Amino acid sequence: MATSTTFHPFNRLPFECRQRVYYFALEGLFCTLSVIAYVHTSQVPWFPPFLSCLCGTSKTALIEAAPVFLEKCTIVVGSLRANRLLTNFLKALNNDAGVNKGFPSVRHLRFPNFHFFMGQSISGENTDIGLIVQCPELVHAELHFQIDNLFHTTIPSVDDAWNGNIFYEYKYEPKTVKEVADYFGLDKLASCPMLRKIKIRVRNYDDRVMMAINEPVLTMRSVVEWLMSEFSKKGYKVGIEVVWY
Predict the structure, then answer these.
(1) Reduced to 3 states, what is the DSSP secondary structure of residue 222?
(2) What is the overall mean pLDDT for the chain?
(3) Which residues contact 235 (CB under 8 A, 6 or more apart)?
(4) Which member of 72, 81, 94, 138 has the lowest number of beta carbons within 10 Å of its beta carbon?
């Protein structure tokens, strides 16, 4: 008689045991996930493409296995569309008791285009920061800045441009810590109790700025010190690494 490989009483196992089974089944698939969305939509896909196929074998598997998978992966969110797709999916990932299992499962987030945000005064709430603060168990966040996020630039007038070498006519004024923090809404990061590491990558695409002034480095250093003090006020300890490239 043929031996069946199907374990029918699986759903009768204790929840913790099922979690361990999913962990070992998914262990070789943990990776860096890129959330990609091509259109703006409020619809939540039943099975988003960034999940492992094992998570889509059934609705029960999705609810139980997806959090195990997401917990061990670094999730890369590179656009507003991707942010909305991930946020809507995590919001809809509830168990039978109506308890959300989506946001608490996220541990690592990376935002390679964080610098594209147009500022809270123009765009309203920073959706990347908004996603971060909704993940109560988040331990690591990576934010990418551009060097021009750290200073104001005064562009030469058209008349000045006719003078020839206009490089020295550019005026760079460093932003204050408050300006940088208010622009991105960085103060909200301190509301994340489990956040233990923040990596800030700053792209120096224009060496002329660093040749003219060194303030962007000092500004970012001050932002880091301020941010660490905000965490400290709430009794939280966080490590912040800044990488210039």
Answers:
(1) helix
(2) 85
(3) none
(4) 94
